[in-house]
Amino acid sequence: MAASASPPRRRHSHRDDVSPRRRKRRASPSPSPPRSPSPGVDADRRRRSRASPPDSDRRGRRRDAKPSEEKENGHTKPGRDKDGDNRPPRRDRVSDGEDGVERRRMRDRVSDDEKEEGRRRRRARDADDEPDDRRGKRDRERERDSRRHRRRSPSSESGSSPDDRRHRRRRRYEGSRRRDDRRRREDDGDERRRSPVKREPTPPLPPPPPLLPEMIPGRTGGIYIPPFRMAQMMRDVEDKSSPEYQRLTWDALKKSINGLVNKVNATNIKNIVPELFAENLVRGRGLFCQSCIKSQMASPGFTDVLAALVAVVNTKFPEIGRLLLVRVVLQLKRAYKRNDKPQLLAATKFIAHLVNQVVAHELVALELLTVLLENPTDDSVEVAVGFVKECGAMLQDLSPQGLHAIFERFRGILHEGEIDKRVQFLIEGLFAIRKAKFQGFPAIRPELDLVEQEDQFTHEISLEDDLDPETNLNVFWANPNFVEDEKAYENLKRSILGAESSEDEEGSDAASDDDEDEEESDEEDEEQMEIRDRTETNLVNLRRTIYLTIMSSVDFEEAGHKLMKIKLEPGQEMELCIMLLECCSQERTYLRYYGLLGQRFCMINKVYQENFETCFVQQYSMIHRLETNKLRNVAKFFAHLLGTDALPWHVLAYIRLTEEDTTSSSRIFIKILFQELSEHLGIRLLNERLNDPNMQGSFESIFPKDHPKNTRFSINFFTSIGLGGITESLREYLKNMPRLIMQQQKPKSSESESSGSESGSESSSAGSSSESESESSSDESDRRRSKKRRKRT
Q1: What is the pLDDT of residues 603-660, one digit of tens each?
Q2: Are residues 546 and 456 in the same domain?
Q3: Is there a domain that residue 133 lies in?
Q4: 8-state DSSP, 110
């Protein structure tokens, strides 16, 4: 019965395998008793054991399965309790072999769980000491391990073979071992970092070996060597002809030439030239040319200074001047082909100043201008205009015809009108500069005119020639005859510098004597040295003091007394006169206070009289700049000085009263001046002063007698201002002027050939008598007219 009866049906829980294949196997009848260990049943039990819950759940189910077995023996339905609830199926016992495998698997799992729990405790204990980034890394690793553990749980291996399970178990074991090793190393490192044990300091590195020239890489040395270190290295080298020593001297020469060229200016060029000749320019001629061109490109404003330096060097080493000119011309051609305008402007400016210094021939400048103006564009014409501005003054002296041809080409370009308006204005400005004879654009500044034109070597090259820049002179080359060349240049340097180099070789005694003499001369120079104030601060303070003294005084006597107490340096008396005149001109109306003060100073010292005379001349020459009020005050001030004889009357010789030589302002000044004199002296005394025979030479410019037109203008001027009485003598002269002119034009009587002829004598006597009669009659008529005028007045 039991064998034929089918096993009871069971409900599937959430832990059972619900695949169709397992459901089919479960539904098929078992051919053997339930407790017999047949292979089919064993396989089914193994499959169910893989999906079984953990041991704790299985033990609980076994405890729950015991009452169900009792109920089943007590004739209760298997699989249901009294309440009719479903129970989980009872698990059949397995054989000893399978149970051992299961126990080993569970033991391994428990050991893995215990290891994981131990690691978690250690991580929790060290969590406070770890930084935040390491803690986050550990959390991410734990989360990744948990996901990996869930992914590799036994439930996912239910459908795999024993070989697959063994392989996965091995991989899991190797991965866990690697993780343990890595964490152990990290924990050991953390403990070592947290341990208070101090490590022994590492021994210092040995000093680097001394730097040798052959160890210096690169084009410019590649590393900075201090000057004292460089000097020490040069002293340590025993073989002075070795390439290493030559390289050291080459680097020192390059730095020295660059430094001297970079710091040269118009003030210190006379001091730089001897220092430059002290260097070996024959060896470093390529370095010198390269440094000059680079400095000129960096600062075109110092082009004239560099050209003057090159001119001085060219007098002693003409090949250096030619090499520099060749390189500048090649730079110009290269910039012209590349349309590089800034470089072209710099090159043309350098060539222009070399032409001014007569280092380059004027034909180079004319050829360059011809090339620039052959196919005119805006840029080429602008460059040509700038070039002519720089060297036009020199070309005007050396080749005026060539410069005229260049300006005719400029005129043709201007008439064509194909260039921009801005460039046309540049050409018009250039014509204006030429008309002004290049004022503001001198060829050579006075402080840069260092070389006599006879001592200069002029180089003539063409833009079409094949020129060699000799760029190999810019780099270092070992010289087998280095020592001999250095000695030869030392001799050449002595011949160039002359006594300066020989003085350096004198003994210590002579040097000490020279030092003592120099100290004595320096002391004498310091005693004789005076400090000059270029800011005129003292002059401004003096003027302020004079102004405040004049304006704060009650009367002229107090002002004069205070002003005489001011200590004036020799030559500062003029400042007092100027300030007195300025204060007078600033008043709204003329104050007699200023005239009396000026009179007092003229009476005290003749120096002030001469200064006021100079002020009169200056004020009359600039009278057109003054306003009417200032003009009136100045005229009344000088009239007071003339009326009181504080100022000599010969100052009136600076006034020329003609229509061409006077302006409206000057005529107003003369009018106010003579009206004030007539009010102060009276018309009679003024007329006597003007008719003084000793002063007639000073008054000829006021009462001109050179031409009837000027005479009439003077008479009409004084008549219009109410002073016609001072022109009586001038009117008489104007009346007699026709007869005097006829007498001057009458040719002199020639000597008579027959001295004894009576007819000639009679005629001459008759002529003389007739002339005397005519003169007497004319005098009588003039007297009658003057009497009638007096009666009318």
Answers
A1: 888 889 999 999 999 999 888 888 989 999 999 999 999 999 898 888 888 888 888 8
A2: no
A3: no
A4: H
Residue ending a domain, among 455, 474, 493, is 474
Handedness of CA 240, 246, 251, 257 (dihedral sign): positive
Q: Is the same domain home to 442 and 551?
A: no
Q: DSSP secondary structure string, 290-303?
A: HHHHHHHHH-GGGH
**CA pair distance 359, 785, nearest whole angstrom:** 83
The tens digit of pLDDT for each residue in 694-709 reads 888 888 888 888 888 8
Instruction: Quote the number of domains for the chain.
Output: 2
What pLDDT score was predicted for residue 692? 85
Q: Which residue has the tokens 């991989």?
A: 171
Longest alpha-carbon distance in the chain: 217
pLDDT in tens, 438-459: 988 888 998 998 888 788 889 9
Range of the domain at 698: 538-742
Which stretches of 357-469 are DSSP H helices? 362-374, 378-398, 400-416, 421-435
Radius of gyration from C-alpha coordinates of the chain: 61
Residue 152: count other Cβ atoms within 10 Å of its Cβ. 15
Residue 86 lies in a domain: no
Residue 413 sits in the same domain as residue 552? no
pLDDT tens string 755-790: 444 444 444 444 444 444 444 444 555 555 555 455
CB of 412 within 8 A of CB of 404? no
Q: Is the predicted pLDDT of residue 92 greater than 50, yes or no?
A: no
Exposed / middle / buried, residue 752 (Cβ in 10 Å: 0-12, 13-18, 19+): exposed
Helices (H) and strands (E) in the chain, counts: 32, 0
| 583 in the same domain as 444 | no
Separation CA 255–CA 237 (nearest Å): 20
Contact 47, 22 (CB under 8 A): yes
Q: Are 699 and 690 in contact (CB under 8 A)?
A: yes
Residue 80 dihedral angles phi and psi, to the nearest 5°: -140, 145
Last residue of a domain, one of 427, 443, 474: 474
CA 144 – CA 182 distance, rounded (Å): 15
Amino acid type, 639: A
**Alpha carbon separation from 702 to 649, 652, 705, 723, 734 (Å, rounded):** 12, 8, 10, 13, 15
Note whether 372 and 384 are within 8 A (CB). yes
Query: Quick one: pLDDT at residue 683?
Result: 87
Alpha helix stretches (DSSP H) within 82-221: 96-125, 132-151, 162-194
Which residues does residue 86 pair with via DSSP β-bridges, in sequence order? 80
- pTM exceeding 0.85: no
Is the same domain home to 571 and 467? no
Note the residue count of the chain. Answer: 793
Q: What is the mean pLDDT of residues 107-120?
A: 70
> Measured between alpha carbons, how far is 229 from 245 in angstroms, rounded to an integer?
14
Q: For the domain that residue 450 is a member of, what is the CATH number?
A: 1.25.40.180
Secondary structure of 273-288 as H, E, C letters = HHHHHHCCCCCCHHHH
> Token digits for 514?
């020279």
DSSP 17-48: ---HHHHHHHHSPPSS-TTS--HHHHHHHHHH
Residues 379 and 455 in one domain: yes
Q: What is the DSSP letter of 390?
A: H
Beta carbons of 594 and 583 less than 8 angstroms apart: yes
